């Protein structure tokens, strides 16, 4: 399985397995089935349950088409909306344990998902052959939308799992100090721990200090340095995250 090295904004280089063409196709099929099910249900409700078919009587072809577009509108925006809300995943991608990420290490945003969505019109043309060929010939199994948005789709179900470096041993009677850590993601915590571990190895107090300040800024915390050192603070944050997310060994 091919891999991609992503250099995060914190200058941490991490390798991920690229989602295979088969995984992406299965995710696409799952999402397609969901969209088909929605369409069947919405038309059944419209014509059978609420018996609103009479509203279309006497309308011209364009007006009828407009009504159909309105009824099925969620199907068209399904990918861009759900990828934005689910941080690079749709139900299909989530079931297949794959995710859209930015190659430059930054968090993919709505604009990136929108670009992928727009290019979907090209990628799905000719029965999806265009996108399929693009994934086969591109280095990172990217379809045209991925290339245009600077994204790739990675697999999360392997030994390079996105959360594999955040595990921390905590005792059963451990009492957390900062519930605010739930605002962090697995990716945030992995980057924090990677940077912290590297800084400890070389004794870089500056990085530890900057990392501590960054965490406090994100979580909006004010810590009295007389009561808790920067190292103690970062250690507690890592343990608290493991406690709240259940990622303990």
UniProtKB/TrEMBL annotation:
Domain (RDD) ranges: 19-150
A GO CC annotation given for this chain: membrane
Membrane topology: Multi-pass membrane protein
Alphabetized UniProt keyword annotations: Membrane, Transmembrane, Transmembrane helix
Places the protein is found: Membrane
Superkingdom, natural source: Bacteria
Transmembrane segments: 25-50, 62-81
Pfam families with a match to the protein in the record: RDD
Coarse class of the protein's main subcellular location: membrane
Coiled-coil parts of chain: none
PANTHER family, alphabetized: SLR0254 PROTEIN (PTHR38480)
Protein name (database record): RDD family protein
